[in-house]
Specification:
281 residues, nine-stranded mixed beta sheet, binds N-(5'-phosphopyridoxyl)-D-alanine, D-amino Acid Aminotransferase, Chain A, domain 1, six-stranded antiparallel beta sheet, 2 domains, 28% helix, alpha+beta, D-amino Acid Aminotransferase, Chain A, domain 2
């Protein structure tokens, strides 16, 4: 497997990052995950725009993001699978450990690779997944996609231990998002998700889903909801790069029912965008 590392393509066994890399020492790095549907790097431009915002917010030196596209196309040439996941990580570079930013001229570390992923199974789509709620104990700038994901890791592991697929974060009594996805419900026939604030990641799949919902003339609201409202929702689903749109059918042990009509319509519309044939029975 080839990896892109600071402008070069190397075999993964040769790809080495120094121990003084700030991504390793401080989590001082941003990342993106982009799904590969066949040959299509889905929503590349939106992901790169979010990466640019993150780099600016953290005051990173300029990074040539256009060069990343050429490198991604080169990595894609190795592809021998249907669906893949492209990972980009950019850290503030390598410098002896100090909380202060490294001196001007320190080059960011840029890495990128593609790995195959199993498409979401028909069973999961037909049955939906169970989720649990957990307190949102993350920092207040989760809109920046940094690699500092420890609270997300702990939340996801907790969900897994309880036989659930995802953990849904609750802050100040309302649902923000999941450990690696955004969260939608349908209640009173209206599609709802939390509005963009610094307490959620502005998910690209969330954005695409909202656009598809608008095109389908589905009633919708960008308004937070409580766990109680989620327990009594008609439908619920997660959105994220790895999962696309994934129906949620059980929340903290309350069963909502089989994946409903709004979720199914959005799934079909999403597959049309990503040129995937329908996986609903
Ligand atoms: N995570 N919220 C969080 C906290 C996330 O980590 C993610 C994605 C999302 C969904 O965003 P998008 O639709 O742009 O993928 C929401 C990625 C996939 C990950 O960390 O692997």
């Amino acid at each position: 497997m080839r990896v892109y590392l600071n402008g070069e393509f190397v075999d993964i066994s040769q790809a080495r990052i120094p121990i003084d890399d700030r991504g390793f020492l401080f989590g001082d790095a941003v990342y993106e995950v982009i799904h590969l549907y066949g040959d299509l790097l889905f929503a590349w431009d939106l992901h790169i725009e979010r990466l640019r915002f993150g780099l600016q917010a953290l005051e990173f030196p300029p990074v040539d993001l256009d060069a990343l596209r050429q490198a991604a196309d080169e990595l894609k040439r190795d592809r021998n699978f249907e669906e893949g996941s492209l990972y980009i990580q950019i850290s503030r570079g390598v410098h002896p450990r100090s909380h202060l930013f490294p001196p001007e001229g320190t080059a960011p570390t840029v890495v990128m690779w593609i790995r195959p992923v199993e498409p979401v199974s028909r069973e999961l789509l037909a049955e939906g997944v169970r989720v649990i709620t957990v307190p949102d104990d993350r920092w207040a700038k989760v809109w920046i996609k940094t690699v500092g994901l420890l609270p997300n890791v702990l939340a996801k592991q907790k969900a897994h231990r309880q036989g659930a697929y995802e953990a849904i974060f609750v802050r100040d009594g309302v649902v923000t998002e999941a450990s690696s996805a955004n969260v939608f419900i349908v209640r009173g026939g209206v599609l709802r998700t939390a509005p963009e604030t610094n307490y959620i990641l502005p998910g690209i799949t969330r954005e695409v889903t909202l656009r598809l919902a608008r095109a389908l003339n589905l009633p919708m609201e960008l308004r937070p909801f409580t766990p109680d409202e989620m327990y009594t929702a008609e439908e619920a689903f997660l959105t994220g790069t790895n999962i696309g749109i994934l129906p949620v059918t059980t929340v903290d042990g309350r069963y909502l029912g089989k994946p409903g009509p709004v979720t199914r319509r959005l799934l079909e519309a999403f597959w049309a965008e990503t040129k995937v044939s329908s996986r609903l029975g």
